[in-house]
Design brief:
heterodimer; A: alpha/beta; Rossmann fold; 6-stranded parallel sheet; 4-stranded parallel sheet; 10 helices; elongated; disordered N terminus; B: mainly alpha; ABC transporter involved in vitamin B12 uptake, BtuC; 13 helices; globular
Chain lengths: 355, 330
Amino acid sequence: MKRPIALLAGLALLATACGGTTRSDVAAQRSAAPAASTAPAAADPNAPIKPGLKIAFLPKQVNNPYFTIANRDGVAAAKEFGGEGKEVGPSEASASSQVSYINTLIQQKQDAIVISANDPNAVVPALKQAMAAGIKVVSYDSDTAQDGRNVFVNQASAEDLGRTQVQLLAGQLGHKGKIAVLSATPNATNQNTWIEFMKDELTKPEYKDMELVKVAYGNDDDQKSFTETQGLLRSYPDLAGIISPTTVGIAAAARYLSDSDFKGKVKLTGLGTPNQLRAFVKDGTIEGFELWNPGDLGYLAGWAAAALASGQITGAEGERFKAGRLGEYTVGAGGEVLLGKPTVFDAQNIDDFDF
Amino acid sequence: MTVFAGRIARVRELGIVVALVVLFGVTGAVNPAFLSPAGLRDILLNSAIIATLAVGQTLVVVTRNVDLSVSSVVGISAFGGALILADHPQVPIPVVIAGCVLLGAACGAVNGLLVGVAKVPALVATLGTLYAFRGVDHAWAGGRQVNAADMPPGFLRLGSADVLGVPLPALVALTVLLAVGWVLRNLPQGRELYAIGSSPEAAVLAGIPVKRRVVSAFVAGGALAGLAGVMWAARFGTVDATVATGKELDVIAAVVVGGVAIFGGSGTVYGAALGALLLSGITSALAVLRVDALAQTAVNGALILAAIMLDRLLALRVARSLRKRRRDAR
């Protein structure tokens, strides 16, 4: 009879002990998190990268070639600094689906989450919970609202992308002729911002002989982009060039031009990936196009996450950190880290890239 | 009686033909480039894939069923074909095409067994396989994209080559259309599909092997979706796991606009193909006419409704005059 009672007493003790630890754990985390976020001055640029950091990459959508490349290099970055990277995410790019992944990552006690937000606001409450639990949050490719992350790794500034695409096409056209834009959907935020900068660039005196006649929308759908390209060429017979700032649009337009009478006569440029457009650069449909390197984007985001989780940076303007092969980066205003100017791909260099 | 029914059927398509003539006439008057040989070639190419799918969908719809999974079957077939061509260039192109058609037929068989044998309502069964096939496609692709540079130029040329001045995909669609149209009109197996759609119970009592016919309608529809997948890969040259997402609604719209009754039993593949031509004609016309991009979708929908109303109006008028003539004859 004595033994069971003793056992019970022991169990009870154990239970209270466990309860105690858990509660104090949570309390510690609760008090630690705000302390960290209210005292951003605590960055130590010389802090070593902590070993064994667990970093999760949460793209807009898995199985998307762009993110597959970005996250492959992100995971490779984690390996370089002795951490452990993984990619998780929904198969459909919707805002609500990312929230449940964030919750799971909080339970798994990841050290950092690297996210490309499907909706800038919908994921913020979940990300705030993550930060309250001591997890560092880096957004890349597509930013969240500013209070939902510590740092945003920006692939390229909207201004650079808008202006350089016009410069690229103008160079191919000798600064002369009618041009059109083949965009994604009419409400695509990125594309619309770029197009505004394109229009602004075109107001400069060196483009006085160039005219933007139409912005068409291919809705990032092969068939619709095809039809819109045909429509542009039929309704503006003297069209000289097309800018398509979306990978689906430029591939469809290139495919159409490559076996039409307009091949080589109407210049096409925009944003695309080298693998996607290799055939069209080689057959002369496209002279040159541009994009940031998505691998570098994931890689830089991985290093930014490690720098945050190790206390090298907190996300305040002016802090600096090292990002492996890419060198040193500085955090800009609003916690933004800019990857750099876009890369131009043409017949000379396209075979050096595989993505 | 068959002459009478045949006339009504012909009249149904006449409405679409009138709508097509109006569309092409007005657009061509505003911008003659729309009716240039190159412009017409574009329209034929644009509608070939949807027309092939609409023919397959008609087979299923006349039996009072529907196949929502076509877009996913196109996707999986396009990706499968492109992947084989990219990774195993030694496989002859005809073998790849045959493989894609078989893959489509297999997907169709899954749908057919679910609907015909397990008696799951077609709307539910094919909604399920719409996601299931797309899911398999995603898992298979694993984020990979097959690009034009990865596929043999000979295959890509199939997507745009001309035979006797007509683009090859349009010829394929036309061949499929004539073959299926002939079967539906002249073979007992074809007529039985209509009987099943008109009254499934009566069809059973009449001794028609309903299960087998429904399964074969789905298999044939799937095979055509597989063929459309190859056409897609050859035409667009960029293939990933999201190919043709959402296209099932375009196909069903083409079928319905073409005068095929959504509750089965009537309509022809010619109507469905004309419906596909009309829908892609509208999209092309809006692009050529410089219609404001933000208004395009709304105008597109309005034009589809206008086409259907025109069709309905003509059908009613002809039916009335026929009734009148019959009364006068009596």
